[in-house]
Write a structure and sequence with these properties.
The chain is an alpha/beta fold. Helix content is 35%, strand content 27%. The protein starts with a strand and ends in a 12-residue tail after the last helix.
Length: 196
């Protein structure tokens, strides 16, 4: 019997599944971030190999029976990056079995199958991704925390801290966020936020 691996790699965690040819779930595994832009190639490869090993061990499946692996990874939207990520697995038992694309493509497929639709990912980062009736794909956002990612967990958290700091400085509206952040991080003063 043939087996297949699917990967949803994000900025915080990565989830992997092993399924058989009928689509039955055989095993699940979880590893840390595999965002190519954030962790780099070596760490991505290490996390993936660890995840693959967990799946195969749990499912009691020999690597030779794995026919195809789809990596849907945050930070892997450019073709040049996808090629580099595939090369990471040269000279491993997974060589030639791996296909790489952005994590938004797997979210879109999971939500709509082959139909048109739009998804928004709002996790560690954020991106909007859609497909029209003709199958044309479009994206908006997904530029990373320095250049965008509005609506992401990082963006929301950073905005809350900025609002609290503006309150503390007296250059912004008073906000309950100031005390909430001090309490959450167990600080004596918001000034202790800097080394965090």
């Amino acid at each position: 019997m043939s087996f297949f691996i699917g990967v949803d790699g994000g900025g915080t965690k990565t989830e992997l599944v092993l399924v058989d040819a009928e689509g039955n779930l055989i095993a699940k595994a979880k590893v840390s971030s595999t965002n190519y832009q954030a962790v780099g190639g070596n760490r991505l490869k290490q996390e993936m190999l660890n995840g693959f090993q967990k799946l195969l061990k749990t499912g009691n499946v020999d690597v030779k029976r794995v026919r195809f692996i789809f990596l849907g990874l945050a930070g892997a939207g450019r073709k040049s990056d996808q090629i580099e990520i595939k090369k990471l697995f040269d000279k491993t038992p997974y060589q030639g079995k791996i296909y790489v694309d952005n994590d938004a493509i797997i979210a879109l497929a999971g939500a709509f199958g082959t139909r048109p639709g739009i998804i928004i990912i709002s996790g560690t980062g954020s991106i909007c991704f859609g497909k029209n009736n003709e199958g044309k794909l479009e994206r908006s956002g997904g530029w990373g925390y320095l250049l965008g990612d509005e609506g992401s967990g990082y963006f929301i958290g950073r905005s809350a801290i900025i609002a609290a700091l503006k309150d503390f400085d007296g250059r912004g509206d008073r906000t309950r966020l100031l005390q909430e952040i001090i309490s959450h991080f167990q600080l004596k003063s918001i000034e202790e936020i800097i080394p965090l």
